[in-house]
Amino acid sequence: MLLVLPMIFRVTFGFAGAGVGWSETHAMIAAATDPGLLVPTVSDIASKRAQMLGTEFSVVAIRIARYADNAGARARGVKLVKQTWVNTSTQLNLNAEPAQVALMVRGDSLASPLNPQFDANENQTFLGGPIDICVDNAGKVFQNKGGLGAAFASWRSAMLTAGMGWLASQTILDVPITTITQNTNGTVQFASANALLPTLTQGQTYKARIRRVNGGNSPLNGEILLTCDDNEFLTSYEIIGIALTQTGGRIRFYKQVAPFVQYGDLILSDFAGNHKRGRPFGSKPGRARKRVRG
């Protein structure tokens, strides 16, 4: 008998309606290698999620992407499901709250012997497009209106049964910066005060976050891709425009493949939050932004 080891997937639910849309992404662990095998499970979750939506909105697609195997090696493979799931309530007056309003859900982590460092972690999920009568002007949520309480309980049960969760960032190195130099080709070189090897591998590119350069006011701060040149120096993958002298700061490096944390519970907050909406899911993007910062 062939033993199939667990695979980690990223599952994105796409929403559209009233000229706007958004997406909600969760991670999922399953004993499958083909993302297509997960379609029945995630379709059921999409159907239950739609019952918390106002009549203007619907789930219009699900993207299931393989992320990594259980050993932490990256995996590829995507399945796109184009289908529409709507709130089946016959009350056509259940309109959605205005833009920017979202139900807030706290996800508690399930204890894991593989990643015990995340056992006390919490995840915050934004569920956009709630029914108007479920939220008052102060943002208070009423689970006893619009069938919200029952719909949330059904979605929560499906999510927990399916083994849904999130991907947690794990720091592998945090170093202070000694000097910052602009290269002739526009990339930026950073000198580290601490040794980079053997934690990093020479010649490999890493995802990192820079903070507190120039007291927090610098185009260098934020997420960045850095290549490890040697035991001391790193070079940015991007061209970054810097006009002033850049000093201070730290660089934090993250594990290439983020560990999976499974939901132990999902708890609906008593108050709604803000949720930015963009184009309807699946619509063509506008002109691409320039990558150069500064």
Strand content: 35-45%
Low-confidence stretches: none
Give the beta-strand count.
15
Count of alpha/pi helices: 2
State the end-to-end distance: 57 Å
List the quaternary state of the chains. single chain
Helix content: under 10%
Compressed to H and E, one letter per element, the order equals EEHEEEEHEEEEEEEEE
Provide the residue-averaged pLDDT: 89
Count of separate structural domains:
2
Please tell me how large the radius of gyration is: 22 Å
What does this protein look like?
With 294 residues, the chain is mainly beta. The protein has 2 domains: 179 residues, no CATH class; 84 residues, Elongation Factor Tu (Ef-tu), domain 3, CATH 2.40.30. Helices cover 9% and strands 39% of the residues. The strands form 2 sheets. Strands 1, 2, 3, 4, 5, 6, 7, 14 and 15 form a 9-stranded antiparallel β-sheet that branches. Strand 11 and strand 12 form a beta hairpin. The chain is globular, with a radius of gyration of 22 Å. The mean pLDDT is 89.
